[in-house]
Amino acid sequence: MKEINVAVTGGAGQIAYSLLPRLVSGETFGKGVKVNLRLIEIPQVVEKLEGTIMELIDCGFDETGNLLATADIEEGVKDADWVLLVGSIPRGIVIDGKKIEERSDLLRINGGIFTDQGEAIGKLAKSDCKILVVGNPANTNALIGMTKAQNTGQQWFAMTALDANRAKAQLAIKAGKDISEVTNMVIWGNHSPTMYPDPYNALIAGQSAADVINDENWIENEYLPLVQQRGKAVIDARGASSAASAANAAIDTVKSVESKTPEGDWFSAAVASDGSYGIPEGIIFGYPLRSDGNGNVEIVQGVELNEFAKSKIEVTTQELKEEKEAVKDLL
Ligand code: NAX
Question: What does the pLDDT look like over 158-167, one tens digit per residue?
Answer without folding.
Answer: 999 999 999 9
